[in-house]
Design goal:
- There is one protein chain.
- By secondary structure, the protein is an alpha+beta fold.
- The protein is built from seven helices and twelve strands.
- It has a twelve-stranded mixed sheet, with helices on both faces.
- It is globular.
Amino acid sequence: MIKKFSEPSEEIIKEIRKVELICKEHDKLNGSIFLDTSINFNSEIKSLFLLYDSNILVSLVSMFIPTRDEAEISAYTLPKYRRKGYFKKLLHEAIKEITKYNILDLVFVCEPQSNDGNEVIEKLKAEFDFTEYFLRYNDSVDDMEVRPTPEIKLKEAEKEDLESLINLSQEIFNDNYEDAKSMIIKSFESENRIQYIGMIDKKHIGMGSASLGNDEASIFGFGVSPQYQGKGFGRAMLKRILTDLKNRGRENITIEVDSTNKNAFNLYKKCGFKVETSFDYYRKRPDFLFQS
């Protein structure tokens, strides 16, 4: 039996975490599957597919879909239920769903040490795209020194800052207008997200977001306008975000960066982040499963 969800309940999340723990121990994995669907570009799209055997969750596929350009695929199958075609069944259902929304690409996420995961990627003939590093903040190696720069202010953005944030997102990340608008509005609407904006005088020069857990925070969408990069503004702004999150009681802070962004990677390490694990990303067109 396959169940499909656009938003998982607490009960479903607990089931998923049980499967995740077994798979992580078996495959010696470090990461965790991302289950926050609030930032998906369409709240109605089914992004979680669960396969049950005798009412026991044995396999799952999760999709992270912040834009129409691509869907990031993560999956777990309990070890004794592998090589039974369960992942393929779930992937088939996932592809049928994203085809309704004209999503162009699938991106499969796999930790390098996962032998079974890499075997699946090879069978799919997906092409390697990049590696993403998952870093965790280590206060003991952070000197908290900010190089002298013109004063940069950080504030929690408000809806009146929407157009400025969209412009920054287009400048920094090359996002199109509608995708940028959708992601920023979802951050405003979410109860567990903070949208930051960085300013010099009254000019908006940088942005960043944070997703909050009980004692955790994950920073994403962080960047500084190109004309202000390489001058210490990014480091100063990131330090202020870290300070704000710690003031909110979040000591466990993480951030992700892909292997093509060496400047950001070096910045995060200088600010006290250390690599905890990495994920390889492989790209594939979604129509492959229906080809004869």
